[in-house]
Amino acid sequence: MFGCIKKSISAFRKRRTEPFSRAVAVTGLLAAALAFTAPAMAGGSFTQGNELYGRGRYAEAAKLYERSIKEGASASLALFNMGNCYYQMNALARAVGCYRAAIVEAPSFFTAYLNLGVLYQSQEDWPSTVSTLEIADALEPDNKQVVLILAVAYRNLKAYGPAVKCLERALALDPAMYDCYFMLFDVYQELEDLDLAVSYLNRYPDTGRRAAEKYRLLAGVAEAKGEADKAAFFYRQQVELAPDNRAARYQLVEALNKSGHALLALETARDALKRFGDYGELALLGGNIAFERKFWRDAGQFYQTAYALGEARGLIGLQNVEKQTKKTEDN
Predict the structure, then answer these.
(1) First CA to last CA across the chain, in angstroms?
(2) Using alpha carbons only, how large is the chain's radius of gyration in Å?
(3) Scanning 86, 127, 224, 317, which has its CA 20 to 30 A from the CA of 6?
(4) How far apart are CA 139 and CA 102, in angstroms?
(5) Residue 288, Cα to own-chain centre: how many angstroms?
(6) Nearest by Cα to 170 from 23, 32, 35, 21
(7) Cα distance between residue 119 and residue 185, in whole Å
(8) Would you say 238 and 218 are in contact if contact means Cβ atoms under 8 Å apart?
(9) How far is the C-alpha of 169 from the C-alpha of 147, rounded, in Å?
(10) How many CA atoms lie within 13 A of 130 on its CB side?
(11) Which residues have C-beta within 8 Å of that of residue 162, sequence separation ≥ 6?
């Protein structure tokens, strides 16, 4: 049972726009690129480096930061900003070296740990992400970004217990971090605890930007468990939240038919065809549903529409309807 459910949910998750490994945007990196440059520092190279960095001239800025160390500027801050420059130039190995050197100079340099950890995350180097951000977490336990990225890293290492704890911490720090509910759904779905997975997903508000996706996933769970009526209900909720989602309309029509509401399925298909016009695949589905129910006239209309919209199978459907109609007349 669970194997079937897991396979079904996996098919839904493949269509997600935000894979778990990239669920947290790399927003920490460079956010504090010049955060430690305000105090006056010896020599003008550091200040000039800031100006060039702000203008996107990263290679020149990096050289000036390096020179500023000889002029008496803070080595940790100069190395940190050099790391940001190299990151912007996609010289990631050099960026890592600079962040590490900055940490050697200042072992409690939280933002250096943060940027280094986020860089590792962008490379999907999960062990390094964890080892780096665990130190950042110890330095600033209330930093929700660190906690959330740690959750992603733990999950990708299949360390589900620490992942759940981090996600719960992130929600405690900021109850509006609604994406955590999707991550918790993913974790418990992989652990095959669908009831708990669904309970977390249900906590995602219908006003959130991913509410339609929430109902798509809930419908997927219901389908996998053979709960056709629930699946149809959830797909309808998805359609109401995302009325222009063609796939959602198609899935709703399928679910209504599977739940024994063929007439409603056909009505829904007609409404969708009026809305979208050029949805030949949906017209074909409507024809197939009508054909199965022996609604020959409805089947013919749907197949005719499908064929007119470029679905070659619509012609085959029309021919089958003609044969069945003739049989009925002969009898």
Answers:
(1) 45
(2) 28
(3) 127
(4) 16
(5) 34
(6) 23
(7) 26
(8) no
(9) 7
(10) 14
(11) 150, 151, 154
Is 247 in contact with 235 (CB distance < 8 Å)? Answer: no
What is the signed CA dihedral for 23, 27, 29, 34, rounded to 10 degrees?
A: -170
What is the Cα–Cα distance from 61 to 57, expressed in whole angstroms? 6
Compute the C-alpha angle 309/311/314, nearest 5°. Answer: 105
Give tens-digit pLDDT for 159-183: 999 999 999 999 999 999 999 999 9
Helix, coil or strand: residue 293: coil
Residues 6+ apart with CB under 8 A from 165: none
Whole-angstrom Cα distance, residue 306 to residue 313?
8
Confidence check: pLDDT of 10 > 80: no
What's the CA gap between 181 and 204, in Å, rounded? 6
Residue 264's SS3 state is helix
Q: Report which of 153, 138, 152, 147 is spatially closest to residue 169, judged by C-alpha positions.
A: 147
pLDDT of res. 331: 62
Helix axes 110-122, 75-88, angle to 10 degrees: 20
The burial class, CB within 10 Å (0-12 / 13-18 / 19+), for 328 is exposed
Query: What is the rounded CA–CA span in Å between residue 288 and residue 119?
Result: 51
Q: Cα–Cα distance between 281 and 311 in angstroms, integer? A: 7
DSSP label at residue 26 = S
Contacts of 267 (CB under 8 A, 6+ apart): none
pLDDT value of residue 22? 39
Choose the weakest-confidence range: 33-42, 125-134, 169-178: 33-42
How far is the CA of 110 from the CAs of 80, 106, 116, 135, 179, in angstroms? 11, 9, 10, 8, 25
